[in-house]
């Protein structure tokens, strides 16, 4: 009975993912400017590079900002371990099958698909960065959305992987900011 429920749930998730992939493909894939943007975002999301660059640049402003950059790096490391070495190893969901040639080079991950580590790290970083610098909250989350959705565009993740990763990242950020607050200015 439990297997039957699990099969129905994953079946519904697979149908959702297929519908999103087809709609996304018709509307957005194969358009050179969008392809370039999403492939670049996906590459910059590898190993949380974009978030470490932002944190490092901000850390140059003051000692408090340097402390915030260290916190961001440590939180992203913890998030990566939990997602990539924990959850992905437990779920082991196959990645989408790419049948068409990719218009740009892209590193092929070795981990399983669920949840999206790019989405998780993006929303973790956006939450942690926003807590330290609320004036740029909209920008951080806009970049997080582009990085996360890039994984659907380049067909490295299913839409449900990205949604789960974003939700997980948002929770991770809230916990991190609450457990590791920075001193007030």
Q: Can you describe what's shown?
A:
With 185 residues, this protein is an all-alpha fold. The protein has a single domain (2-179), classed as Vanadium-containing Chloroperoxidase, domain 1, CATH 1.20.144. The chain has helices spanning 2-27, 32-45, 49-59, 63-91, 117-132, 137-153, 159-179. Helix 6 runs antiparallel to helix 7. The longest helix has 29 residues, at 63-91. The mean pLDDT is 92.
**Cα end-to-end separation:** 56 Å
Principal-axes geometry comes out as globular
Here the CATH topology equals: Vanadium-containing Chloroperoxidase, domain 1
Structural class call reads mainly alpha
- Element order: H for helix, E for strand: HHHHHHH
Strand content: under 5%
CATH level-two architecture: Up-down Bundle
What is the number of E strands?
0
Summarize the model shown.
By secondary structure, the protein is mainly α. The protein has seven helices and no strands.
Output the keywords.
single chain; 185 residues; mainly alpha; Vanadium-containing Chloroperoxidase, domain 1
């Amino acid at each position: 009975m439990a297997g039957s429920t699990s099969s129905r749930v994953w079946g519904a998730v697979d149908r959702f993912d297929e519908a999103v992939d087809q709609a996304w493909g018709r509307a957005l894939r194969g358009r050179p400017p969008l392809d370039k943007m999403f492939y670049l975002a996906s590459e910059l999301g590898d190993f949380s590079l974009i978030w470490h660059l932002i944190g490092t640049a901000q850390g140059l402003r003051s000692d408090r900002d340097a402390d915030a950059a260290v916190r961001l790096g440590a939180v992203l490391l913890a998030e990566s371990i939990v997602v990539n070495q924990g959850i992905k190893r437990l779920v082991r969901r196959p990645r989408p099958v790419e049948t068409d040639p990719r218009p740009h080079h892209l590193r092929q991950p070795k981990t399983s698909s669920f949840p999206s580590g790019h989405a998780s790290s993006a929303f973790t970083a956006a939450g942690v960065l926003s807590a330290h610098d609320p004036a740029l909250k909209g920008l951080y989350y806009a970049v997080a959305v582009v990085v996360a959705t890039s994984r659907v565009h380049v067909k490295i993740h299913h839409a449900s992987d990205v949604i789960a990763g974003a939700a997980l990242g948002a929770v991770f950020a809230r916990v991190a900011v609450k457990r590791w607050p920075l001193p007030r200015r």
